[in-house]
Amino acid sequence: MDESIKLAITGKGGVGKTTVAALMCRALSQEGYRVVAVDADPDANLSSALGFPEHIEITPLVEMKELIEERTGAPAGSSGAVFKLNPKVDDLPEKLWKERDGIRLLLMGTVQHGGHGCMCPEGAMLKSMIQNLLLFRKEAVVMDMEAGIEHLGRATAQAVDRLVVVVEPGKRSIETARKIKELAEDIHLSKVSLVANKVRSEEDKSFLREHTTGLDLLGFLPFDDAIMQADMKRLPPWELSPQALDEIKDMAVKLIK
Ligand SMILES: Nc1ncnc2c1ncn2[C@@H]1O[C@H](COP(=O)(O)OP(=O)(O)O)[C@@H](O)[C@H]1O
Ligand SMILES: [Mg+2]
């Protein structure tokens, strides 16, 4: 139970990735983990789901151009240039994140992808950062990813040890999950688990079980008006839906066992 854990939360647009990521951060924090939340979605909103104030100043990693150039040997945004694949970053994290309730938040910013699976100086920085975040046991990294699968470049995916794909009762998000699983296998990331969100009934559960055969379904997160209310009030979901946190905690425990 004391191992470190690095999760990337992914899935189709609007399925609840940010909600699940925030709940996962809170659950792992309450399980005694030192949690680093990484917002890797260019349309960043994990900070609001974690209850950070509206105008926090965190400079996204990719905007630290001088730092990227200094550490990788190539300007951010350059492609085809020679740069260090394992830049030194172990002295950086403290400068780059803000902390609230024991959860530290890091913003990635928008990485301009040069192509499928691109490895650019920013990507190398991110990968090194995530690899270096875990210096102690019982540390957790939870990354909130953008929708889709194109961004699942090698850099990001190789830095984590499990993809958690959020699905909802419906075929489209499950198709996305299967594509993500294939892509993960291509880059030798075998650990992929599913969280079923917005589940309203036993029929929904049967549908999800039936259509996710061969995939590791961690559990069901019910559709809950309180989660929507929390979003409207800009509160973390666990403040209005403690039940949701309990559900995610059960799933987190399965992952850290
Ligand atoms: N289990 C749920 N019950 C009700 N509303 C939910 C649930 N999960 C997410 N939502 C709502 O759905 C919307 C999209 O969720 P979000 O986490 O931002 O998705 P994503 O990050 O995948 O785009 C938000 O308004 C959120 O409050
Ligand atoms: Mg999101």
Summarize it.
The protein is α/β, with parallel strands linked by helices and 257 residues long. The chain is built from eleven helices and eight strands. Helix content is 40%, strand content 19%.
Q: Would you write up a description of this structure?
A:
- The chain is α/β, with parallel strands linked by helices.
- It has a single domain (5-251), classed as Rossmann fold (3-Layer(aba) Sandwich), CATH 3.40.50.
- Helices cover 40% and strands 19% of the residues.
- It has eleven helices and eight strands.
- It has helices at 17-30, 46-49, 65-72, 93-96, 121-133, 154-159, 171-186, 202-211, 225-232, 237-240, 242-256, and strands at residues 5-11, 34-39, 98-100, 103-107, 139-144, 162-167, 192-199, 216-222.
- It has an eight-stranded mixed sheet with strand order 3-4-2-5-1-6-7-8, sandwiched between helices.
- Strand 7 (192-199), helix 8 and strand 8 form a beta-alpha-beta unit.
- Helix 1 (17-30) packs across helix 11 and helix 3 crosses helix 5 (121-133).
- It is globular and about 55 Å long.
- The model has no long low-confidence stretch (mean pLDDT 86).
- The structure holds adenosine-5'-diphosphate and magnesium ion.
- Magnesium ion (MG) binds at residues 17-18, 41, 45, 144.
- The site of adenosine-5'-diphosphate has 15 residues, from helix 1, strand 7 and helix 9.
